[in-house]
Amino acid sequence: MSTPPPVLVDIKFNPEGVARVLKTAFADRGSINLADPADRLRDLRAAEYALLWKPDADLFQRAPNLKVIFSGGAGVDHIIGMDGLPEIPIVRFVDRSLTTRMSEWVVMQCLMHLRGQYAHDISQRRGEWAKLIAPEAAEVTVGVMGLGVLGQDAVAKLKVMGFNVIGWSRTRKEIDGIETFDARQLDAFLARTDILVGLLPLTPDTTGFYDSGLFKKLRRDGALGRPVFINAGRGRSQVEADIVSAIRDGILGGASLDVFEVEPLASDNPLWALKNVFITPHDAAVSEENALFRHVETQIARFERGEPLQFVVDRAAGY
Q1: Angle, helix 96-114 to helix 149-160, in steps of 10 degrees
Q2: Which fold has domain 7-95+287-304?
Q3: How far apart are CA 21 and CA 135, in angstroms?
Q4: Where does the D-isomer specific 2-hydroxyacid dehydrogenase NAD-binding domain lie (predicted)?
Q5: Do residues 56 and 82 touch, judged by C-beta distance below 8 A?
Q6: Contact between residue 130 and residue 123 where contact means Cβ atoms under 8 Å apart
Q7: Please, where in the chain does CATH 3.40.50.720 lie?
Q8: What is d(CA 305, CA 137) in angstroms, rounded to the nearest whole number?
Q9: 229 DSSP β-pair partners
Q10: Residues 6+ apart with CB under 8 A from 123
Q11: DSSP category for residue 156
Q12: Which of 92, 282, 295, 315 is catalytic?
């Protein structure tokens, strides 16, 4: 019996971790790791499956016989729109570990804004004993935009922490115990929101979505005084110049950002120095390589047994 063709891997993050895990992953078929100089020039025409994160622009020309594409993360905007993208299934990475990491980050950021952590940090550095009286979580409404796997898990964990939580998605989702809104109800959703959490995928409709006009529609008479913007979805969904001006003008009281229009964030970007803004380097929910490769192995096995793939992207919707 012939050996199945290797899995093509073109991942632009943590090359050392990827190489280490690939030593034991895909044991029945092996892999071609384009981050490895020894593999860079290999013939890719035999490859039937590709695991990708921001792949080389000519990849689909070099690998014309792919049957399934697997994204190296929850997002697929780095693949959709590429030249030569074949009409084959694209599968998102959905994993308990990635989902849990994202929810941890979202809950942490909401709690830091609730409890005035930025002010506490300043007082600590000054050696000042300055107590703050913060509202309870139940007095604050967190509006989560994007109610897929990540968004629904974040909603559930924010509820456990006591926040009043509402949700928004392009088409309305039914979630037990959560009031949800759809595209037609965007303004009503924003008017109720004290902390806006962005977990939207990047599509033509969501590019530049979080802008000054949207920020002005957020609730202004809530327990926090001024609304807060948190984004761990996609950097190009936000207009960073508008975030800067909204913070400086008092339209926003603070922000937490894990994603940016251009990454890494330039050292002279004004976001670094803004008051009550927390910056993390796109690591809210990094893909853990062992879990990622197990996910791909599981989906390949399903596909080759004739079973439906899970987490297939709707190309028309963009996610």
Answers
A1: 50
A2: Rossmann fold (3.40.50)
A3: 46
A4: 108-282
A5: no
A6: yes
A7: 7-95+287-304, 98-279
A8: 48
A9: 196, 255
A10: 129, 130
A11: H
A12: 282
Which residue bears the tokens 């697929």? Answer: 76
Instruction: Note the pLDDT of residue 1.
Output: 57
Q: Which CATH class is domain 98-279?
A: alpha beta
| Residue 2, pLDDT above cutoff 80 | no
> Please, where are the H alpha helices in the chain?
15-22, 59-62, 96-114, 117-126, 149-160, 186-191, 212-215, 240-248, 289-304
Rounded average pLDDT over 12-34: 93
Instruction: Quick: pLDDT tens for 225-281.
Output: 999 999 999 999 999 999 999 999 999 999 999 999 999 999 999 999 999 999 999
Active-site annotation holder among 113, 226, 234, 295: 234
Q: How many CB atoms lie within 10 A of CB 160?
A: 11
Q: Is 234 a catalytic residue?
A: yes
Catalytic site includes residue 295: no
- State the pTM of this model: 0.91
